Amino acid sequence: MNSHVLRCIAVFFLTAGLLIAAEDPGKTASSHTLTIHADRGTHTISRHIYGHFAEHLGGCIYGGVWVGPESSIPNTRGIRNDVTAALRKIKVPNIRWPGGCFADDYHWKDGIGPREQRPPLINTSWGVVVENNHFGTHEFMDFCEQVGAEPFICGNIGSGTVKEMAEWVQYLTSDHGNAMAELRKKNGREKPWKVKYWAIGNETWGCGGIMSADHYANEFARYSFFLKNYGDNSLYKIASGGLPQDYVWTETIMEKWSRTDGWLQGFLGGFSLHFYAVTDWGKKGSATKFTENEWFTGISKALEMDQLVVRHSAVMDKYDPQKKIGLIVDEWGNWYDVEPGTNSAFLYQQNSLRDAVTTAINLNIFNNRAERVKVANIAQLVNVLQAPILTDTEKMILTPTYHVFEMYTVHHDATLLPAEIKGEEYSFGGRKLPGVTVSASRDQAGAIHVSLCNLDPNRPATVSAQFRGASPKTVSGRVLTASEMTAHNTFANPNAVTPQRFTDARIAKDGFSVTLPPKSVVVLQLK
């Protein structure tokens, strides 16, 4: 190749670079510094922070999990094989069931025994459709066992009775000596199950009974007293929280728990918080058709989770400085308008790169607040709200949310490493947000994992990281991003947004440097 041709090529690339810079000056990378205290890890990130929620709502259970043993869709005892395999891959630690609002209309004895003899009911909470009760207690426990997840039961306090819930505990967990254990054996399960997590009602301020905090505190104590431990099964009882910003409700429950007479001591294991990132309940917006303004407001709303966790934790700290009681964020996620042409009561929505970023934001928050946050459950498991999995008869796709959960499995039961990040903010329309969020942990083998999320959809972010108390020698990673903020997986194109190998990280003195693509989630491993 002669010198003239080389000069022409050089001029071409220089001109192209200048044009790109002139057309999009915002592509200049933002700058950030990160300090990771590898010498200060004391708290464990519970794997149960990565839990899921499955309600009898739309296509979550029927079609999403349960197809029946006679279905042509590959299944094991009626439960979809493709869904259970996908859930095993992300190491789902627990599944909350049967609701949600549905839980306070659900009577568990209608869902046991021969399926053809189970009485149907009308699902008044979601679509006024007929619920045939073919997926009941035994099917749910089978599903949990196939997935390898712990069951998380939400009991009916709204339309149920103390006796009904107490007998459900007996049916599931007692070995012998009572009618419920014998009934379970009659229905095909000889040995009892282990069921640790029990929510005493759901959203009892609303669909769970329209109660006041004081009234609910009394009901919680009454129900809890009669829910007994059988054999070596130990119940972890979870109280219903109020509306997201109802700190008075939290104060009421915690104050009664802490009284010197101890009438709630020993009963209360966790306190529930629900929060959906919705900017306008009247018009939630599309899951896949949105502008940067909607991107920004959605990201901003997701970041509110941290303030909620901090403020509820502060109330809990007042009465429980030793942090005996866990904060249980057992419903969280994005809620958009349903997909066009679908039943509005079924809450079926798509899932884009924006959902991946907000998932990473929330999981980073839960990781960093692991001293108090012990369980969390994204809503919901399949085909409803911010679902990791979508199905269409025999077809299944994994959403960007699913892929973030898979990337973050490295944090399960790892030691939290405190991390501090400082740098340029993401600005839009005169408003500002943090540019990058982060969490870090060390696993039992000694590897350090750092999860970073660049919130800015336009600019890369350079991060210069320094360790205190560690000197890793190698770094590798994976990234989840796409060219468009609205990118999403479809049944026609199921791999539009999937994790890729990431190579733009380098070991530096006492740390590393990394350049994060715009609107991306990156997880690094350092050894």
Read across the widest sheet, the strand sequence of neighbours is 2-5-8-9-10-11-12-13
Give the class-level CATH name of the largest domain: Alpha Beta
Measured as a percent range, the helix fraction is 25-40%
Q: How many β strands by DSSP?
A: 27
Contiguous low-pLDDT stretches (5 residues minimum) are 1-26
Q: Beta-sheet strand percentage?
A: 25-35%
DSSP helical segment count: 10
Distance between the termini: 45 Å
Question: So what's the overall shape?
Answer: globular
Architecture of the largest domain, according to CATH?
Answer: Alpha-Beta Barrel
Radius of gyration: 25 Å
Structural write-up:
This protein has 527 residues and is α/β, with parallel strands linked by helices. It folds into two domains: 30-42 and 417-526, Golgi alpha-mannosidase II (Immunoglobulin-like), CATH 2.60.40; 47-413, TIM Barrel (Alpha-Beta Barrel). It is 26% helix and 25% strand. The chain is built from ten helices and 27 strands. Helix 4 packs across helix 5 (179-186). The protein is globular, with a radius of gyration of 25 Å. The two termini are 45 Å apart. Residues 1-26 have low confidence and may be disordered.
